[in-house]
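Q&A log
Question type: sequence-to-structure
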Amino acid sequence: MPRPTDDVQAFEAHATDADLDDLRARLAAARLPEAETVHRAAPGPRRWEQGVPLADLADVVNYWRTGYDWRSFEKRLNQIGQFRTTIDDLGIHFLHRRSARRCHTSDLDARLAGQHR
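Response status: OK
Response body:
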């Protein structure tokens, strides 16, 4: 059973502008692989047989570089309630939101109980 800890600290995500600028610069400089040998396969599971289709990867990289609103996500994430603690010398970051149901057990509690029977 994991050793419990009473040392739980509130946590808020905040990326610096310099970190976000660096991420955008690295995305702009990303060297993408050559296109898959099956060009523009039909939509469906087989489309991914050779890995991520280059067009999809390029779209994601471009979205993260030019369209993703990190500050909006950061704000939403920080409204949930984030915390950090240590269990068995392992740093744990978790989100906590109380259930609207009075008798609800958290998913984390249920998973930890299931692992240590």
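Response note: The chain has one domain: 10-115.
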